[in-house]
Amino acid sequence: xxVWFTEDQTSNLKISCKVKEVLYHRISDFQKVVxxxxxxxxxMLTLDDVIQTTxxxxxxxxxxxxxxxxxxxxxxxxVLVIGGGDGGSIREVIKHDKxxxxxxxxxxxxxxxxxxxxxxxxxxGFNSPKVEIRVEDGIKHVKEHKNTYDMxxxxxxxxxxxxxxxxxxxxxxxxxxxxxxxxLFVAQTESPFFNQDLIKNVHDSVGNIFPINHLFCGVIPTYxxxxxxxxxxxxxxxxxxxxxxxxxxxxxxxxxxxxxKAAFILPPFVKNYLK
Length: 275
Ligand code: SAM
Description:
The chain is of the alpha/beta class. The protein folds into 2 domains: 3-52, Roll (Spermidine Synthase, Chain: A, domain 2); 58-274, 3-Layer(aba) Sandwich (Rossmann fold), CATH 3.40.50.150. Helices cover 29% and strands 33% of the residues. The chain is built from 9 helices and 12 strands. A 7-stranded mixed beta sheet has the order 8-7-6-9-10-12-11. Helix 6 crosses helix 7. Residues 30, 47, 52-53, 61, 82-86, 105-108, 111, 137-139, 155-157, 162-163, 166, 188 line the site of S-adenosylmethionine.
């Protein structure tokens, strides 16, 4: 008998993947946490039946949400990762020699448990001596840490439940305050096809707070629409001014000096609604 996992990506759109085996299934205090082994994408993490990451294509998302900002900041010594319980972002952040300390704030320890047990290629960085793991709400953490971080990465789930506040103007203001005077942040900001209002709101909010504000995009096959956005707010450093020659080898599969520039090239339909 064939078993299929289906995510309702919008009320009118579904994605289905053929399942080999369900490896992990728990109801945490926040959500249903599941790891499935799929035929097409390898192991897949879902939260409340929404795909978060898969072994086959996770590198695109994790390399974009981390390296674009880490390369833009000349001295990213102290980095905060909010969310990202699968560990993929941490794995990429610690590739940078200049990073001395990574504080990882994930609200749900069951997501990290599932990743440690069944997604070892993503969670490999959890044991790094550079990484401090805190199980707490990222919104509260940011409020309580002023002028602390060089870079903040907001690797959140969709804007529902505990992640809702991670997309608000008030939150971006506290992110500004938690960053040092030359700090910057990068957040995942959903689908340019299906979340236009959200992207526009985030863009306007960040633009009102940060002097430098850019949207950049990548291709993530299992996310709604396949085309995905990230937002960077920066106090001083502009990612478009990074000199390609200064980008060192990082052992990546998606990110490269050319991708660093290309990711910021937006199609007219996106530029138009950002105006
Ligand atoms: N790549 C993913 C995506 O876009 O679908 C995000 C993956 S990661 C698993 C998202 C994580 O954010 C989840 O593990 C969730 O528990 C965590 N999270 C949600 N709200 C949070 C909050 N307020 N503070 C800290 N972590 C949060």
